[in-house]
7-carboxy-7-deazaguanine synthase (Anaerostipes butyraticus), 222 residues
Amino acid sequence: MESYQVVETFVSINGEGKKAGRLAMFIRLKGCNLNCSYCDTKWANERKAPYELMRTDQIIDKIKNSGVSLVTLTGGEPLLDKNIGELIGSILMLPKTELEIETNGSVPIRMFRERDARLTMTMDYKLPSSNMEETMCLENMEELKPWDVVKFVIGSEEDLIRAKEIIDRFSLCEKAIVYFSPVFGMIEPARIVEYMKEEHLNKVRFQIQIHKVVWDPDKTGV
Ligand SMILES: C[S@@+](CC[C@H](N)C(=O)[O-])C[C@H]1O[C@@H](n2cnc3c(N)ncnc32)[C@H](O)[C@@H]1O
Ligand SMILES: Nc1nc2[nH]cc(C(=O)O)c2c(=O)[nH]1
Ligand code: SF4
Ligand SMILES: [Mg+2]
């Protein structure tokens, strides 16, 4: 049985994506291959970040005991772990449990091609203000399912323009559910809505990270 470097687990309302507002069990894995300018979980990516090595069965027990039916696997970058398939498969064996994976868009999601709506990919497209755009795996745009989410986290005017270009180039609104979300505190959220109106982005959904409004934005474990 495999084990994973877990930096935190907690139950909270999901603050992002199409399952926002619902209770979820969060499993946050250590480490990331990117270094986004705005990352709010840099602490989890540090080499020295403390973690608990948890076996698949221990994580599954934790989910079962939580009584929560939605699991959010995040990080760091959860898809970097070469054994992640075992954990994903085991979570999906739990009856009536939905799994959402937060992934950064730089790691191929192709190996998860055979999946139904119980496994949602919530995939970022990293825009210029992240300084990570060149790492994006564009083949992923062809692997999206209609129930997946593509998230553009927007920090600047340049990001807005680039997000629209990418949506148009890959017909993203026809392939998946598309969100615009501000880099927390970096751009006036109303400007994003203005841009959506200007460009008639009728299928894009606007979202603010709910947990940063409910709790201190720097608080972990919520
Ligand atoms: C911390 S990341 C972990 C999962 C994965 N590494 C990724 O980037 O998608 C989870 C989500 O938080 C978003 N995020 C990180 N820092 C943020 C910030 N300062 N403001 C808004 N969203 C942020 C990321 O863009 C991503 O969508
Ligand atoms: N409440 C809450 N919802 C979230 N949705 C995605 C998160 C993440 O960090 O990936 C997150 C998070 O950190 N907290
Ligand atoms: S990819 Fe995700 S975890 Fe990694 S640095 Fe960017 S926002 Fe942070
Ligand atoms: Mg977060």
About this structure: The longest strand covers residues 3-13. The longest helix spans residues 157-169. The mean pLDDT is 97. The chain is about 25% helix and 25% strand.
